[in-house]
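User: I'm putting together a small comparison set for a docking exercise, and I want a reference complex before I start. The sequence is below, and the ligand is pyridoxal-5'-phosphate. Could you produce the 3D structure with the ligand included, as structure tokens?
Assistant: Of course. I'll restate your input first, then give the structure tokens for the complex.
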Amino acid sequence: MKEKKKVVLAKRIGQIKPSPTLAIDTKCKALAVQGVDIVNFGIGEPDFDTPDNIRQAAISAIQEGFTRYTAVGGIPDLKEAIIQKFKQDNNLDYRPEEIVVSCGGKHSLYNLFQVLFERGDEVIVPAPYWVSYPPMLLLAEAVPVIVATPEDNGFKLTPERLRECLTPRTKGLILNSPSNPTGSVYTREELEALAEVILEHHLFVISDDIYEKILFDGQEFVSLAQLDPELKARTFVLNGVSKTYAMTGWRIGYMAGLETVIKAVTKIQSQSTSNPNSIAQKAAVEALRGPQDSVAAMVQEFAWRRDDILSRLAWFWGR
Ligand SMILES: Cc1ncc(COP(=O)(O)O)c(C=O)c1O
């Protein structure tokens, strides 16, 4: 019998592990199929259905035959809707050339890391962090510099802490507010304090704003890019429809930033996935332009659940 040749995988894949949150999710789903009553906290996924107006937009797109390749970085209509969203919600002005639409926010980030970082570039990742940042950085041969943040500061990075971690190789900083997993939200003042260090050291910032709308107790959302034009030029703003519109499976995310970088991100996309799904893009246009009341209703329900869990835990601890 012929001896089987051992498959040798590329070294880069050995550096990373499968996403632990997706692994937990798979396990939860398997247990649920077996009839186990399980509450799945593994994955950041609203348990709501995508609102009906958005689903109808997708059905119309199919019926109208909107089923071909589209522009790699997103259809003009969707880019316009994103530009309007940035203007309306964040008072940020972007041109279509400064926007890219990808197959989920994760995809935008992956492509950004590939074009922005190279071997040995250090990128600061405040901990606790979303599990995918370090592996995606490692795949770009960058060095994730994990920086613990103090619990008594709401797990938020301070300018002092940021300064301590800087080296001549530091090229980027990831900020995720509201944060997955801690839920902390940076105030305008806290961002302004960080901005000083960011500008002084010419850092690029990845502002992961994907949970922008999931806010409680009247908190205000501020994106770093809003603070001043110089900062905007160094910030890549990541957002998407997954969390806000319960559209995790549709895979539409987007990013805004410096035109040269966005162009490079689009080039990578053109040689890997091509355009994000055409039907999902039409659905995303409706999500951004259509009625927004379902977002408020969902957040209200999340707030109710959070308060309920907190009061039960308080009771438990107080026993
Ligand atoms: C902090 C954070 N950023 C980005 C994403 C990417 O979301 P998506 O790829 O569904 O747009 C997620 C998803 O879990 C996340 O938790």
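The mean pLDDT is 95. The chain has one domain: 52-293.
User: Thanks, that's exactly what I needed.
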